[in-house]
Write a structure and sequence with these properties.
Strand order of the largest sheet: 1-2-3-4-5-6-7
Number of strands: 13
Largest sheet: 7 strands, parallel
Helix content: 25-40%
Number of helices: 17
Order of helices and strands: HEHEHHEHEHHEHEHHEHHHEEHEEHEHEH
Radius of gyration: 23 Å
Strand content: 5-15%
Amino acid sequence: EEAIALGVGGVLLDGGEQGAVRTLAKELQRRAPHPLLVGALLDRGAGQRIAGGTPLPPPAAIAALGDVASCRRAARLTAREARTMGINWILGPVCDLALRDQNPAVGTGAFGRDPRQVEPIINGWISACQGEGVLAGARHFPGLGRADADPLLGPVVVHASSQALKELDLPPFRAAISAGVASIVVGHAAYPALDDSGLPAASSRVVVLWLLRLLLRYELLGGAAPATVAAAQPGAAGAPFSPSTVTMQAGRAGCELVLDPGPLGEALDALVAAVEEGSLDRAQVQRSLRRRLKWAQWAAPPNEWRRPSGADTAWGGLVSDRTLRITHGPLPPLGMVTEVVVVDDDAAGPGVLPSRQRLVEALRLAGHDARVAEGPTPASGGPLVVALFADAHPAKGRCTLRPETVARVEALREATTAARRPVIVVALGDPRFMAQLPVPSPTLECWSGDRGMQEAAARALLRAR
């Protein structure tokens, strides 16, 4: 109620059931005095966050197929499902490149590390998404591929020359602009080679007005990443800024939108004060308001037209199956009883995690006797399945397995070998984590621990029977 009364330009949805999300989006649009942007982070399909939507593999997994058409179809399916729920703005695609294996901020959300291969994917993804009447939002300008820390956990400084940034990091964003992307989300890392003031990109007039607006000639919506994140960045005097100050700085830098500006009243007061004192140009504010209204009106309203078909959702399951990879030898066939041990490297991390039981449930639904266990027991003579969850989650802050995770997997492998039984590791997460196990076993690489990938893993295990 407060947000609507203060005149917010949009909302971000995170979680919920499909019908409830549709009802909420409709009610928000009804109450607002102007059309709203209703956005969501749906990198892995609508089912990533919304129950009832179709889950898809991470972008890196689909891109690894080497099939641009599959990336386009993933975007089209996601946009069609999003629109039927009232979501008219997808904060994607990620245009960051996976340039460093030690980067905790960019994981399987990136389409790859080679801009020449990523550019056609970015172009196709945006065209397919916006062709369904849903705005796309390329992120995180000018690129987080070189980051050595996570901006969600503290200040990040990207140390690279302006030439290196222009040659590698910026081409995916150029491709997004060429595709007519409706919005670009500017990140909160600092780039000394671009702006020696030390300001994060979203607060930097050099990055937003000079680089994005003038040099790259981008004239549509520019959005700043969450202000509550940038509030942790050190200011010029070494003290952190408040979210309201970050919001004002982003507006002054040339951003039309600020995600998660913190207390709304404080953010509005800071913007009004900046306009009245002249540090924020009134004409620029009016242009920003017109841009936001234009694109909120452009986005197609939720309706049943071009609703996802049965073939669309079936394709979602098929593409999950195609992205699976078997490494370190063929998978041994399952026995009459399959014991599954869950090893969760993400258990102590932030956020709501997908259910860890979907793999076992899917095996059971197919008629197989699958049991959750703590280790190998005499109940089974077949392979022990180790379901290892180690995903690239926001704010995880690391791209290494915990030592206790490695020790647990090794202990299970030794105990199972001593029982003269094979081990299958179902790697439900970022391949960078899985490569850190010291002694490889036959492994089913599944890219993420989401529901769709657990179900695809169950189908692959059953095929090996």
